[in-house]
Amino acid sequence: MSASGAVSSAPTSTLEPHAARDIITWHAYTNGLKTGAKFGGAAAIAVLTANHYSPTFRKRLGISGKWALVVSSFLGSFTIASEKLMLAGTRNPQKYLDSIDPNYIEEKMNERKTLKWYQNAANHVYDYPYRTLAMVGVPLVGGIYAYQRTNKAIQASQQIMHTRIYGQGAVVVLLLSSMGFHDYMAKRGRFEPEE
Question: What is the C-alpha to C-alpha distance for residues 112 and 108, in angstroms, rounded to an integer?
């Protein structure tokens, strides 16, 4: 039976072990995020209200303490909710999958048949390394130059020299990371959709 009370009719026993693990993990993660958002939002409202109406709260607790109240309530509730679901899924995966909405499982299985955006991006970087370097490097150096132009304390020739030094360093880092990524993809192979 699912959380909404409907009986699951999806053939969850035919799932491969890694597919079942991925579905359980993602389901626990998303439910943890939802729980964390609820508790974090409630804590944020409470902190804003206390900050507005209580001079003692305003004076005695700094900005980092106020943020800590909100963030820790989000992280704590996220951790508890997702770990509880992960534990249930680890103990009895079949029972856990049967309790999930069947539409959720079908949707996740269909997602596995298409590449995610970061896999498409990785394939693009692997297939077109120079084009990618140009697409990232030129705007990066242009942004460094635009930032240097805001520094009115130095002359234009010094701004250009700073841009050259920072831009050269940034492009060298891009080249090295691109080479490392290309080697990784050469060993691993391109990302392909699962059948």
Answer: 6
